[in-house]
Each structure stands twice: as structure tokens, then as C-alpha cells.
Amino acid sequence: MTSPTSLMSEARALLERYNLSARKGLGQNFLIDRSILDKIVSAADISRSDTIVEVGPGLGVLTRALAERAGKVIAVELDRGMASLLRETMSGLSNVEIVERDILETKVEDLVNGAGYKVVANLPYYITSPVLRHFLESPHQPQSLVVMVQREVARQVVAKPPEMSLLSIAIQFYAVPRIVSHVSAGAFYPPPKVSSAILKIDVLPKRRLQMDDEAVFFKLARAGFSTRRKQLVNAISSGLDLDKARGSELLLKADIDPKRRAETLTIDNWLKLLQSYKERVV
């Protein structure tokens, strides 16, 4: 078994060899703990029939582990230096494709040529939410995502009422998330200033709504969370530019107490509110 020390040495040697360094602006913290690497790969439940999309592969430690199990690994790297390193170090692996691109500017269906896929990544923390939404909101969703994220972000994603947030709504609308394991800062080089967690997100087999209705659903959710800890009737009325009586009517029609707060609502509550809104406003 490879020790953390040897993975640390490997990371330093690669950075020195290619005259590179971890770029703080790109959120680069390289995984150097084999036990954590194994937990990520195990949680992803990979077989030879799977196509894996990895975002931010960095030095390729996770990429190589994924390639041992998957049929194909598409590693998307924004950093030109890292992409160049990966093309050399992964050149002997026929099932690995290095794509130098911004994942947020990439159509997922084009990336995987319309094939089914899973996402596995040690995500740059500064783009965690946009990346998760990019995949989940895509017309071509993944089967699942296993991602390393900040521990606090993971806690928000899996939250239940009365601690829901716009982020937890955005993920749980499409999927069922759970925390696989917490991860200390010492599992990375250089170590981040925050603790981390491995998050498994199982995407629902069928979308809850048509995409046009999804847009209206999130319009309502954004209105509800527009002012934290505010009564829903006030937040909804203000966010949707409705008078308070109309806002109260919408909530009551959806069997929601107007004095409740957005943090207390379930996904089903929001879906009922959507139906009320479509019947009375749209």
C-alpha cells in the first residue's frame, strides 16, 4: 500500500519536474492519502462499463486509480501546465482522455458523446456549487457524483428542514446526497485551511419536472431564500413582486403557513407551491 509520505514525495517530485506549483487561485490541493483515495473510488462503485468524468485531475493520482476500474476516464483540466503534465504521465493509459477546458463552459453531452457517465472528482472548492449545478441541471445528467468538497458545504447539501438552504434545495431537487466520510486537511498537499468531506450524490432516475417548470421552481426558491430568516409571505411577495395578500394566498393554497420560513420547507412543499403559482399567477 502506498503511504501518505510516498504520495507526498510523488506530488513534490512531479511539481518540481514540470516546474509547476499548486495554484491557490485555482483551488489546487492535491490528494496524498491513499486511504481517502480508496474511499472515493469505492463510493463511486465503478465497473469496466462506466465512463467517468473527472473535474480538476491535477497531478493525476485519482485519475490513475479511476482508470484501473473504469472503461473510460475523461479528465477535464483547466490549468494548461497540469494538462500538459497529465498528457505525458497518462500517455500509457489507453482509456484516459485529457481535456484541457473549463468544465463550466462545456456541454456535458458533447464531452461524453451522449454516453451515460458518472462524475468523480476532488473538486476545486471555489467552484463546487457551480460544478454540481452544471451537471445536475444539464439535459444529460450523470448517474451519480462522488466529489470531495468542503465539510461545511457537504453539511449544507445534505441538510434537512429546518436547516434547508438554496444549495440543499438545488441538489436534493435532482438527487439524494449523503456524506461518505470526513477528511482532514492533512490528506492534501498543500493542506487547505478547511476540513473536507467525500459526498456521494445519487441522481434520481427521472427528473421531477420538465425543464421549463424547473426554471419556475427555482425562481420561487430564490424568492423564498432572498432574505434569510424572513417569513415566507414577506420573502415570496417581495421576490415575486406580489402584494402581501396575493403572496399569502399562494402559500395557503399550497398548504403552507405564510409565517413559516424557507429553511423549514421540504422539496414537496416547494413543488406544491409551484403548482399554486402556476394556477394563480402564470
UniProtKB/TrEMBL annotation:
<dbReference type="GO" id="GO:0052908">
    <property type="term" value="F:16S rRNA (adenine(1518)-N(6)/adenine(1519)-N(6))-dimethyltransferase activity"/>
</dbReference>
<keyword id="KW-0698">rRNA processing</keyword>
<feature type="binding site">
    <location>
        <position position="56"/>
    </location>
    <ligand>
        <name>S-adenosyl-L-methionine</name>
    </ligand>
</feature>
<feature type="binding site">
    <location>
        <position position="31"/>
    </location>
    <ligand>
        <name>S-adenosyl-L-methionine</name>
    </ligand>
</feature>
<keyword id="KW-0949">S-adenosyl-L-methionine</keyword>
<keyword id="KW-0963">Cytoplasm</keyword>
<dbReference type="Pfam" id="PF00398">
    <property type="entry name" value="RrnaAD"/>
</dbReference>
<dbReference type="InterPro" id="IPR029063">
    <property type="entry name" value="SAM-dependent_MTases_sf"/>
</dbReference>
<comment type="function">
    <text>Specifically dimethylates two adjacent adenosines (A1518 and A1519) in the loop of a conserved hairpin near the 3'-end of 16S rRNA in the 30S particle. May play a critical role in biogenesis of 30S subunits.</text>
</comment>
<feature type="domain" description="Ribosomal RNA adenine methylase transferase N-terminal">
    <location>
        <begin position="36"/>
        <end position="205"/>
    </location>
</feature>
<keyword id="KW-0694">RNA-binding</keyword>
<dbReference type="InterPro" id="IPR011530">
    <property type="entry name" value="rRNA_adenine_dimethylase"/>
</dbReference>
<dbReference type="GO" id="GO:0003723">
    <property type="term" value="F:RNA binding"/>
</dbReference>
<feature type="binding site">
    <location>
        <position position="29"/>
    </location>
    <ligand>
        <name>S-adenosyl-L-methionine</name>
    </ligand>
</feature>
<keyword id="KW-0489">Methyltransferase</keyword>
<comment type="similarity">
    <text>Belongs to the class I-like SAM-binding methyltransferase superfamily. rRNA adenine N(6)-methyltransferase family. RsmA subfamily.</text>
</comment>
<dbReference type="InterPro" id="IPR020596">
    <property type="entry name" value="rRNA_Ade_Mease_Trfase_CS"/>
</dbReference>
<feature type="binding site">
    <location>
        <position position="122"/>
    </location>
    <ligand>
        <name>S-adenosyl-L-methionine</name>
    </ligand>
</feature>
<feature type="binding site">
    <location>
        <position position="77"/>
    </location>
    <ligand>
        <name>S-adenosyl-L-methionine</name>
    </ligand>
</feature>
<dbReference type="InterPro" id="IPR023165">
    <property type="entry name" value="rRNA_Ade_diMease-like_C"/>
</dbReference>
<protein>
    <recommendedName>
        <fullName>Ribosomal RNA small subunit methyltransferase A</fullName>
        <ecNumber>2.1.1.182</ecNumber>
    </recommendedName>
</protein>
<dbReference type="InterPro" id="IPR001737">
    <property type="entry name" value="KsgA/Erm"/>
</dbReference>
<dbReference type="GO" id="GO:0005829">
    <property type="term" value="C:cytosol"/>
</dbReference>
<feature type="binding site">
    <location>
        <position position="102"/>
    </location>
    <ligand>
        <name>S-adenosyl-L-methionine</name>
    </ligand>
</feature>
<dbReference type="InterPro" id="IPR020598">
    <property type="entry name" value="rRNA_Ade_methylase_Trfase_N"/>
</dbReference>
<keyword id="KW-0808">Transferase</keyword>
